[in-house]
């Protein structure tokens, strides 16, 4: 396990590098991942706009900042993602803002389809759901925790809908986007701060 994690860390990128990669993909009408469909290219362009917006508008309250300052362990947040992933576009800017507030948190990004062995160790109900954040102790290399693919409230909404309807409809996916816009990243903030202090 440690070897697989180290291999992924060795080819990881910083969040600014990831943002730059997504911007280049948009300019070239492309996307990350093994599939290069027109709809995934469109999602990449949409997510580029979303990440920019959240990067500018996301607010972290004083209580969360105080909790973050207390965290005193050197860790890496290694996140599996792809540029077309709608949940990632909403959640990753939150991760980045929080990591920026504590120098002991190193935030790194890898692409899911290029890191299958790592993804296979962190499946959600047997699926390769992203984004998936893996919190690694820099000293021991141990995995301390994992988070994702969605904030806790959004996860509950998805699970309830799936239990009732079997699968997610396009209408539900639109409702989920509205939930993200209304929530303004605050559930993810609470979840991630709680994970640090678990």
Model description:
InterPro entries: Thioredoxin-like_sf. Pfam families: Thioredoxin_9. This is Thioredoxin family protein. It comes from Lacinutrix iliipiscaria. 35% of the residues are buried. By secondary structure, this protein is an alpha+beta fold. The chain is globular and about 40 Å long. It is built from nine helices and five strands. The protein has a five-stranded mixed β-sheet. 56% of the residues lie in helices and 14% in strands. A hairpin with a 5-residue loop joins strand 4 (132-137) and strand 5. It has one domain (2-196): Glutaredoxin. The two termini are 22 Å apart.
Strand order of the largest sheet: 1-3-2-4-5
Overall outline: globular
What's the oligomerization state?
single chain
Q: Indicate the percent of residues in helices.
A: 55-70%
Cα end-to-end separation: 22 Å
CATH superfamily: Glutaredoxin
Assigned CATH class: Alpha Beta
Query: What is the number of helical segments per DSSP (H or I, 4+ residues)?
Result: 9
Sum this structure up briefly.
This protein has 198 residues and is α+β, with helices and mostly antiparallel strands.
Features:
198 residues; alpha+beta; Glutaredoxin; 5-stranded mixed sheet; 9 helices; 5 strands; Thioredoxin-like_sf; Thioredoxin family protein
